Amino acid sequence: MNGHNMLVSVIVPMYNVENYIKQCVDSIINQTYSNIEIILINDGSPDKVGIIADSLALLDKRIRVIHVENKGVSSARNLGLDIAVGEYIVFVDSDDYLSFDFVEYMMGIVVQTNAEFVMSKNCFTFPCDSLQIENDKIEIWDSVKAASELLYPDKIEIGCWNKMFNKEFLLRERIKFSENFYMGEGLIFIVQVAQLSNFIGVGNRKVYHYRKDNLSSATTVVNIPKYINAISAIDHIYEERKNNESVFLNSLFYHKYLTTYLAFHTILIINKSIEYKDEYNRYKVFLRKGFIKFLRSNFSWKIKCKFFLFCITPRFTIKLIGLIKKLKLNRF
To answer: Do the Cβ atoms of 98 and 208 come closer than 8 Å?
Structure first.
């Protein structure tokens, strides 16, 4: 397979990212692999991102800008999939950016493995992490391992970015983003792709820069409905699962357990236990019933002890954690 003959479509949904979009697009324009088309989708953004995108399109004929009414990131990505003509698909979040060899590196994994779905296990987390992986290793995973690793919390950053997909495969399997979820939609997509793939090519090098300092990002803003939607997305993955392997089901459980903890913790922190009474009671029961199973996970004993205290006396544990944080701050 000659990867340098293949066109790669890079799809970038845009919403409220006028401060980041130029860096994002510049990183795509300047890829060492030049046989790309760049699809910028303005998802009804109220800021100036559409104007900026149009001006960037004048500088590079590979850029296509599509302006649509706001329907959410899943709808925008699906539109990108519909109009993309590349043999391989890449998704980039518009507040992130790529290393200049991102597409070349991913295509290298495609050529080496001939996989329908390739990814890197690692990425730069901007602005905290700038250390590159010293020794790269290309692996081939089966569908169960890939789906399980993608689900297991803290193993691989969740998202459809930092990955590459064969478009013919996506069309054949009728895989698209679920537009019923605004949290967890990327996780649903990649887990479905992993389960339906014959095998997956996996690298280690960091070639994607994931931004964690955008305070308006959907993954940064904390609110209870976000967590409720994310838990519903996990339940959807369970209902639509393609296998019942224990390693997959365990990863799915651990992912739900951690997300439920975050939701329950947030309800307490912002004093919304009355407003979200049903969720509060349901999450508390789930955490308590599932704790013994959670003990079998690979999370540290520090986390397990914190969760144990949280299951027994959540309000006291919140106060204890707050007190410990204050004591640490007072040291300095």
So the answer is: yes
Phi, psi of 39 (to 5 degrees): -110, 110
Cα dihedral: 59, 61, 67, 72 (round 10): -100
What is the pLDDT, as a whole number, of residue 220?
A: 47
Q: List CB contacts of 55: < 8 A, sequence separation 6 or more.
A: none
Order of strands, sheet of 124-126, starting from the edge strand that comes earlier in the sequence: 97-98, 208-211, 124-126
- Are residues 42 and 24 in contact, defined by beta-carbon separation less than 8 angstroms? no
Token pair recorded at residue 256: 């739900």
Paired sense of beta strands 97-98 and 208-211, if any: antiparallel
Q: What's the pTM value of the predicted model, to 2 decimals?
A: 0.91
pLDDT confidence of 27, banded at 50, 70, 90? very high
Largest CA distance in the chain: 61
What is the token pair recorded at 13? 């949904």
Residue 120: how many other CB atoms lie within 10 Å: 25
Q: What b-and-e string marks burial along 14-36, b requiring 16 or more CB atoms within 10 Å of the CB?
A: bbbbbebbbbbbebbbebebebb
Phi, psi for residue 67 in degrees, rounded to 5 = -105, 125
Residue-level length of the chain: 332
